[in-house]
């Protein structure tokens, strides 16, 4: 593909979104696993939680909304009809990833509770998650900050009903980080701060990604 063909490809929002996703997904998994393994190799990684968190129930089925964020991550790009909006969305995701990974490396934290054994489809989903997600990378919750940015993109869909469903889905995903025993409470407000900060700092009028 020559430069002219590349420009034509990237001028279409769908293909631009696809290109960004092909870049973002490997960056996400590579950097996330690096930070996770880095914490696992440390001699003494601490945990931070409140005593009342011990009373938070483990709800196995909430692994479904927890996993659904992966799908909404990709679908959020389809809600954007302008290539400039696509660039903004992608840069926001890159920014929150960078901020979170730096925090994970500088201030590693470990989830303190033991998750109950789970069977059936929910158990399979948990086992799959454990395959690449060790109990580190806690605060700020990358799951929460991504939910904030992805939901902001999905709100571009004109349907009022879909917007309401997106907000309700975001709330459920954020709750699920606690009920799946993936995060402690402190990870949620810190994740919300990172997500909100990225939305505030990276704005449409300030960004113009050009393809030469």
From TrEMBL:
Annotated Pfam families: PAP2
Protein name, entry field: PAP2 superfamily protein
Residues covered by the Phosphatidic acid phosphatase type 2/haloperoxidase domain: 124-203
Native species: Thorsellia anophelis DSM 18579
Keywords: Membrane, Transmembrane, Transmembrane helix
Residue ranges crossing the lipid bilayer per the database entry: 14-35, 55-79, 91-114, 134-154, 161-179, 185-202
Record InterPro entries: PAP2/HPO, PAP2/HPO_sf
